[in-house]
C-alpha cells in the first residue's frame, strides 16, 4: 500500500483471496484477469511501494520540504467496482498537482544546504504521470469488461430461469407412437431371430435324420443282397441233395463213403446257411422297425417345420407391412409370388417345379422319398432374405 501523492518505486501485486502474486514488467493484468474467469471478481490489484526513485534517493538529503496542497476529491465512477482496489493517490490531473518531496534532516537545514535543482523533480514526474494515465486506461477497460460480464450474467440468469421448450400435443403423441412402434419392432425382431434359430436347428435335425435313413437304407440293401446270395446257395445245395438221393435210389451210382461225406457236408452247409438266413431275417426286421421309427420321427419333424414356416411367413408378412405400408391383400399376393419363385429352382420348368413340390409334401413317407431319386437330388433349401426367411 502507498500513501496518496507519494513518489517512489512501486510493484503491482495481484491478490486472490489469501494469495498474492507479483506481476512482472511484461505481464498484462487484463489478460490474467480474463483467464481466471469467474474468479476475476475476487481479484484485487495493489500498488506496493518498494523504495524511492533513483533521483529521489540522491537528492533526498538536499531537497527542501514544499508546502503540501490539500488532497483533491477522487474521481466518481458511475458503477462501483467488484473486488478491484487501486490505491493510486489523488485522481487529479498532472497540471494541478504540486510536486512533493520528503522533509530533509534537521542537520542539513542547520548547515544551510541549498535546495536541489528542479530538474530531478521534473524527471520523476513524467514517469508517474504516464503510469497513472496507463492505470486510468486499464481502469476504464476493466469497467467496460465488468459491464460486459454483468450483461452476460443477466442474460445467463434469464436463460436459466426460462422454462424448457414445450412440445405440441401432436408431436408428443407422435413420439409416443414411434416409441411403441420401436418397442414392437424390437420384440418382433427378437421373436423372429428366435424362430429363425429354431428353424435352423430343425433343418439340421432333419438332415441328420435323412443321413441316418440313408445309412439304414444302404444297410438294408446290403443285407438283402446277402440274403439273396444265401437263398441261391441253399437252392443249389437242395438241388444237389435231391440229385444225390435220386441217383442213390435208382442205383445208377454205387454207394461210396465220399458221397455220404459230401451229403453230410452239404447238410451242414445248408444248416449254416439257414441259420445265417434266420439271423439276416432278424436283422432285417430290426432295421425295418428302426426305419419305421425314423419315418414317424421324420413326419413329426416335417409337421413342426410346417408350423415354423407358417409362423415365419406371418412374421415376415407383418414386418413387410410395417416397412412398406402395403395392405394385407397385396402383401399376401406378393408373399405367394415370392414363395412360388423361391420354390422353383433356376432353369426348372413348371412341371418339374410341381413335381418337386409334390415330392416334398410333408405327408410323403420315407419309402416314397427313397423310391424317388429326384427327391434326393433336389433337397429343400431355405433362402435367407433381408426381409426375413422364406422357405
Automatic annotation (TrEMBL):
- Residues in Ras-associating domain copies: 1-52
GO biological process terms, semicolon-separated: signal transduction
What the entry lists under InterPro entries is as follows:
N-RASSF, RA_dom, Ubiquitin-like_domsf
Keyword check for Cytoplasm, yes or no.
Answer: no
Q: Where are the transmembrane segments?
A: none
Region feature (Disordered): 46-127
UniProt entry tagged with the keyword Coiled coil: yes
Q: Which UniProt keywords apply?
A: Coiled coil
Chain intervals with Polar residues compositional bias: 88-98
Which intervals carry biased composition (Basic and acidic residues)? 68-77, 99-109
Q: Which stretches are annotated as coiled coil?
A: 135-162, 270-318
Which Gene3D superfamilies is this protein grouped with? Phosphatidylinositol 3-kinase Catalytic Subunit, Chain A, domain 1 (3.10.20.90)
Q: What is this protein called in UniProt?
A: Ras association domain-containing protein 7-like
Gene it is expressed from? LOC107696629
Amino acid at each position: 500500500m502507498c500513501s496518496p501523492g507519494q513518489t517512489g518505486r512501486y510493484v503491482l501485486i495481484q491478490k486472490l483471496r489469501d494469495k498474492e502474486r507479483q506481476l512482472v514488467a511484461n505481464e498484462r493484468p487484463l489478460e490474467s484477469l480474463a483467464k481466471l474467469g469467474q474468479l476475476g471478481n475476487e481479484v484485487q490489484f495493489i500498488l506496493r511501494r518498494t523504495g524511492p526513485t533513483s533521483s529521489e534517493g540522491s537528492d533526498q538529503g538536499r531537497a527542501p520540504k514544499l508546502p503540501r496542497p490539500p488532497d483533491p476529491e477522487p474521481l466518481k465512477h458511475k458503477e462501483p467496482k467488484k473486488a478491484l482496489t487501486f490505491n493510486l493517490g489523488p485522481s487529479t490531473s498532472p497540471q494541478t498537482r504540486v510536486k512533493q518531496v520528503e522533509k530533509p534532516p534537521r542537520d542539513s537545514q542547520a548547515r544551510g544546504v541549498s535546495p536541489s535543482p528542479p530538474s530531478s523533480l521534473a524527471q520523476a514526474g513524467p514517469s508517474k504521470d504516464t503510469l497513472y494515465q496507463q492505470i486510468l486506461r486499464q481502469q476504464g477497460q476493466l469497467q467496460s469488461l465488468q459491464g460486459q460480464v454483468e450483461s452476460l450474467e443477466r442474460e445467463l440468469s434469464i436463460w436459466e430461469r426460462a422454462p424448457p421448450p414445450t412440445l405440441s400435443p401432436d408431436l408428443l403423441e407422435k413420439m409416443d407412437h414411434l416409441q411403441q412402434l420401436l418397442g414392437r419392432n424390437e420384440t418382433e425382431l427378437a421373436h423372429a431371430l428366435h424362430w429363425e434359430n429354431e428353424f435352423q436347428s430343425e433343418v439340421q435335425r432333419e438332415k441328420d435324420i435323412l443321413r441316418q435313413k440313408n445309412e439304414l437304407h444302404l444297410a438294408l440293401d446290403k443285407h438283402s443282397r446277402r440274403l439273396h446270395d444265401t437263398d441261391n446257395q441253399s437252392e443249389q445245395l437242395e438241388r444237389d441233395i435231391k440229385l444225390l438221393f435220386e441217383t442213390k435210389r435208382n442205383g445208377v451210382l454205387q454207394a461210396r463213403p465220399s458221397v455220404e461225406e459230401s451229403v453230410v457236408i452239404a447238410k451242414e452247409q445248408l444248416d449254416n446257411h439257414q441259420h445265417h438266413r434266420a439271423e439276416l431275417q432278424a436283422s432285417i426286421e430290426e432295421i425295418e422297425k428302426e426305419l419305421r421309427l425314423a419315418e414317424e420321427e421324420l413326419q413329426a419333424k416335417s409337421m413342426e417345420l410346417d408350423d415354423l414356416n407358417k409362423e415365419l411367413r406371418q412374421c415376415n408378412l407383418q414386418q413387410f407391412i410395417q416397412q412398406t405400408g402395403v395392405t394385407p391383400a397385396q402383401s399376401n399376393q406378393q408373399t405367394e409370388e415370392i414363395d412360388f419363385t423361391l420354390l422353383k429352382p433356376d432353369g426348372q420348368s413348371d412341371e418339374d417345379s410341381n413335381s418337386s413340390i409334390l415330392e416334398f409334401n410333408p405327408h410323403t413317407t420315407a419309402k416314397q422319398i427313397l423310391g424317388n431319386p429326384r427327391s434326393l437330388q433336389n433337397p429343400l433349401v431355405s433362402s435367407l432374405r433381408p426381409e426375413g426367411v422364406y422357405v
